[in-house]
Amino acid sequence: ETTLTQSPPFMSATPGDSVTISCRAGRDLDDDVNWYQQKTGEAPVLIVRDATTRVPGIPPRFSGSGYGGDFTLTIYNIESADAAYYFCLQHDNFPLTFGQGTKVEIK
Amino acid sequence: QVQVVQSGAEVKKPGASVKVSCKASGYDFTDYAIHWVRRAPGQWLEWMGWINPDNGKTKFSPKFQGRVSITSDTSASAVFLEVHSLRSEDTALYFCARDAHNSFVQSYGMGVWGQGTSVTVSS
After folding, report:
1. Beta strands, E only, B1-123
2. A46–B44 C-beta distance less than 8 A
3. What is the rounded CA–CA span in Å between residue A26 and residue B67?
4. How deeply is A94 buried, as exposed, middle or buried, from its count of CB atoms within 10 A (0-12, 13-18, 19+)?
5. Which of A48, A91, A97, A103 would best serve as a mutation to test chain B binding (most B beta carbons within 10 A)?
6. Contact B110 A87 (CB under 8 A)
7. Residue range B39-90, pLDDT digits in tens
8. pLDDT for residue B39
């Protein structure tokens, strides 16, 4: 089973900040990592697929990068609407596995 | 638009079984795999398994193999998760989700998610 180590577990940001969330894998995953956003009481939403491809309709301030074993989600010029729980998923091999998640709070 | 809608909350006693449904709409039901994922209190997400709704073929996480079944009903465009021999650790929010791509050879991760179904196991 592939372990995904996501960090940090929590971050607090001010509107306009850039924030970076990391997801590190214990093996080579090529680009088979997705990022999701989940707001309180709502279903998760796919925001970046295959490490770098932003899903249509997602604002360009969300950016994914990385390949192989290290992946990053960056939110530029963060807004209050971006307060949510973010998590990564590897779909390179079964069983699919998730990172532990990052709660992003906006001050 | 593409939607997957799950059945309502369940409360079960230890040792019982629970069956949660996931009804899809807005696309050709047999073209995409459906995943089941859960999140227990204080834990992060766990992938449980997936199904090819067209032929009923399934794959499970080793953790759930043998205690969980996933079935599909193409006439109803629905997928079902059944968890047997429930224990308190199965108390969780259960999600179904359509795969992000119409392939059954490999997964592209979850695309559209259901709203979640709360399952509480308590005596």
Report:
1. 3-6, 10-12, 18-25, 34-39, 46-51, 58-60, 68-73, 78-83, 92-99, 110-113, 117-121
2. no
3. 28
4. middle
5. A91
6. no
7. 999 999 999 999 999 999 999 999 999 999 999 999 999 999 999 999 999 9
8. 95
B-contacting residues in A 65-104 (Cβ below 8 Å) = 87, 89, 91, 94-101
Nearest in space to A35 (alpha carbons), one of B66, B46, B111, B8: B111
Residue B119 CA: distances (Å) to CA of B8, B12, B27, B109: 9, 8, 28, 24
Pairwise CA distance, residues B114 & A24, whole Å:
27
Half-sphere exposure of B54 (CA within 13 A, CB side): 8
- Is the Cβ of A53 closer than 8 Å to some Cβ of chain B? no
Q: Residue A33 carries which side chain, given as an amino acid letter? A: V
| B contacts of A94 (beta carbons < 8 Å) | 59, 61, 107
First to last CA, chain A: 37
Distance CA B35, CA B98 (A): 6
